[in-house]
Amino acid sequence: MAEVINMPRLSDTMEEGTLAKWFKKVGDSVKEGEILAEIETDKATMEFESFHDGVLLHIGIDEGSTAPVDSIIAVIGSKGEDISSIIKGSNTANEEPKPEVKEEPKPEVKEEPKPEVKEEPKPEVKEEVKSAIATNESADRFLISPLARKLANEKGIDIKSIKGSGDNGRIIKRDIDSYKSSDYSQFIQPRPSVRESSNEFQNSSMRKAIAKRLSDSKFSAPHYYLNIECDMDNMISFRNQFINTQNIKISFNDIIAKAVSLSLARHPKVNSRWYDDKIVFYDHVHLGVAVAVDDGLIVPVVKYANSKDLPEINTEIKDFAVRAKNKKLTPAEIEGSTFTISNLGMFGIESFTSIINQPNSAILSIGAIIEKPIVRNGDIVIGNTMKLTLACDHRTVDGATGSLFLKTLKEYIENPVSILI
Where are the domains of the chain? Predict the structure, then answer.
């Protein structure tokens, strides 16, 4: 008996999927556990296994096409099996019956005879030919010597704008040589022709999911923002020493991720989630790290980040970044975050604000490290600073709560050795 393969729900937020690639074609034999296709969800591209043995009898969606969850994408059965009723049912399942409209007979309309219209003879028009020709000739004729005309053509000078100094106003060579034009257009290079143009691309499943989730977050969670500036000189020295002694190239983002995790463990009210009837405060820290990909943004999650050391965090974030760009992350790796960080400092952005990645209660925006004059012990010196912006959901994180979290985070960042203690 033929088995219908439906578009699977591969994540909790998935409403439709895009068939990225078929590994089988109609007529191929399929075994249970074989990879049937790759499906792009709103978060990642995942391999889809067959749960049945048989022959692929029908493909209901082409590569690159999108279909809603639970719609038929394929049929597997025995060779030669009649599946016309299944295919017909899948094509008509979503069609609404159209109401039958009866056309009323149109009444006959008799055409009345049109009255005969006689054309009146047009009056004769006499043309003043001679006077018009004479006027045009006098307007277009200029007295100019052959040499002067040649020079004017070479220099691109309009002879109509020159007053001749020869007999009867004749334009001669010296008039061309002494001509000074007030029109500088001859020296301006012509601009290339410009026309309006645009390119159109269909929204991917990921882009549509990002639009929906961020819109819901921005308009449902009352955002407010807190800003601090950190002295980064100690962290720069700490990173250099760590790399030299441990031979592991950690990034500033790795150190900040660890500092954030330790700060959240001390301030669980920031590490929380809002429900209509309660607030949940998490003791564990599942840290979401925003990663830019071609289709937008994806947030893989470092689980139990507060209990992991710097090399572990470094390895995990690097691995996530590579697989996120190749759309190879699993749903388990991009779900369950309790707090999120977003770093645009690597692009030279000094400070910015982010939209909360719900169901988190806050998100931290990390800016660039900037060298500038600062006041230290009463003296103006050259130092390195970094700006952080915390976006908070006011339903769960009050201003004082967010401020105490940032105070603790600032202490870790400006004294990074305390991260190792």
Answer: 3-91, 149-182, 205-419
Task: Tell me if the domain spanning 205-419 has CATH number 3.30.559.10.
Answer: yes
pTM score of the predicted model: 0.65
154-199 tens-digit pLDDT: 887 877 778 787 777 788 888 888 876 555 555 556 667 788 889 9
Residues 400 and 66: their CA atoms lie apart, in Å, by 47
Its CATH architecture, for the domain 3-91, is Beta Barrel (2.40)
Distances (CA, A) of 75 to 21, 24, 78, 80: 16, 12, 10, 12
CATH of domain 149-182: 4.10.320.10
**339/364 Cα distance (integer angstroms):** 8
pLDDT per position as a tens digit, 268-317: 999 999 999 999 999 999 999 999 988 788 999 999 999 999 999 999 99
Considering the candidates 52, 223, 284, 394, report the single residue annotated as catalytic.
Answer: 394
Find where tokens 């983002």 sit: 253
Check if 267 is active-site.
Answer: no
Within 10 A of 328 (CB to CB), how many other CB atoms are there? 13
